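Hi P.,

Sorry for the delay on this. The queue was packed all week, but I finally got your sequence through. Input first:
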Amino acid sequence: MRKKSIFSPVLILFTLLAFVFASSARADDDPPGRVARLNYIQGSISFQPGGETDWVQASPNRPLTTGDNLWADRDSRGELHIGSSSLRIGSETGITFLNLDDRTVQIQLAQGSLNVNVRRLDGGDDFEIDTPNLAFTLDRPGDYRVDVEPNGNATVITVRSGEGDATGGGSEFHMDSNDRATFSGTDTLNYDGGEARGFDDFDQWCNSRDAREEHSQSARYVSRDVPGYDDLDDNGEWRSVPDYGYVWFPTQVDAGWAPYRYGHWAWVAPWGWTWVEDEPWGFAPFHYGRWAEVGDRWCWVPGPMVVRPVYAPALVVFVGGPRFGTSVAFGGGGVGVGWFPLGPREVYVPPYRTSERYVQRVNVTNTTVNVVNVTNIYNNTTVNNVTYMHQHNAAAVTVVSHDTFVNSRAVGNSNVRVNQQQMQTAEVQRNFAVAPVQRSVVGASAPASVRPPAAVMSRQVVVKETPAPVRPSFNNTAPIPNRTFRQAGAPPVQQPQQQQQHQQLGQQQRPGQFPQQQGQQQQQRQQQMTNQPPQQPQMQQRQQTTPPVTQQQTQPQFPQRQNQQPGQQQVPAQQQQQRQQTNQNNNPPAEQRPSVRFAPPAKTTEDTYHPHQFEHPQNAAPPAAAAPPPPKEQAKPQERGLESKKPADQKDKDNRK
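Then the structure:
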């Protein structure tokens, strides 16, 4: 009996541990909780889905994610949003999303002008802009601009407000507010720094767009992390109604309008079927919150005012079934696909693979609902026992043919009206499994009239964080180029084994399935600070603790001391070589994206961050040990793993400013 009483707790403990590890593995497969949204187009902007070779005309409101490419043609501009951060691209500018998830924004700027306005940068967040010369990391919220010359030989960084670090050529330069610097070279990074200049036409346009967002009335009712909240101001009105509080009524709609009726469906990995709305104001109401009818009008009920609500591809319920298909007539025969919007407090069950924790987050951040109710609905396999608000409302249900659905055709012109009797035969389709086609991935847009130069989009860029692997092309028809990895100052190193692994991954991918994005762990970074030369008070250069593969000569305008900093330990050369070999072996698989050049790690990655308020506390990293107190002569405290190296007299000037 005693042996049994001891074994049972041990068995229970191992069972719980197995459940925790299994839940963690499922959580790693969850899609990101945010995307980028292209909300403004002036001129001509082309779009290329990640992994594909086709370029099409960019469609406003189509979600953008890891691997996607954008090109703004001559005399063109575009505006994007990632949560509360805005990105604006100028004429002849090409960008690629190297990584876009809940904690990382990594953008490749191959050529042109990019303005970034970051409202909030939480602990543990990484915001990085990679160019052919350097990797620029944003350390604080602020207003930044990065310009890359057409030949890719130089990068100009302007920091209007905030702080950041430019890394490349074995060196790192810290930039403060009102700094401007021109960087050139690759193996050796040269720079010419000074104060920020006046505003040009592109800057003035960016400022006007920022002012529009700053004075948005809808920010009173919707989190600024919901992309498109400011578009609601000019297209509807806010009113307080019983049961729901403040809701938004669209005013620029025709009679017979219903949510999720005017637009098309597109296949966007890793979520799958995604609604792309025609309404210019439709991104926030169709990917966040819920819809209700008050009187005879539709209104949008936003979710709680939380930080970073979770994005959803379409908050709808799909209906169908054999009896419903035979009762609805479609031109040319075949079966149909139907759906209706979710109402307030109703649980969204994603048709794509997720963890239970993801289902909780995507619901509680978008509507007022109890977590227990979410879990019960999620675990309820008998979906016909759940009754939805709009399920039997024929005016709320939209039905199209299978051909219209999978080929991303306009839904509004192909909608088939159904009656109450037909709706009685409709069954809720939780396991919605309609296989996409090539047209589903590219979308309904016409082929791009202008494509970016191939030499521009294939340029190597310097990166600090490891880019995420890009999904293979649909049906694995696009060729996978040879990718090279290069540490700053070192010759390219081929990775044939990793490329072979990536090709095998593409061969395993079958049509109708979205590839699993496997998260890459961030490389551990160390920093070694050097004294600031007196002739450069605004810019600081830091020597890297990890040396380049080939030795580079020190730049003459920045003499660096070889003395060891107090409190730092000298790392033996043998250990450094072992670390370099380990980093080369751990490089990610080859992917269909321009080759990149890795910059030496420069600063220590934070061991802790502020987790999302709806995440489990145990998922957060354990707190780091307390750091020793800094020397008395260092007046500025450490921020995000970096220390200011400005002289004391320069700090006094900054304080007086």
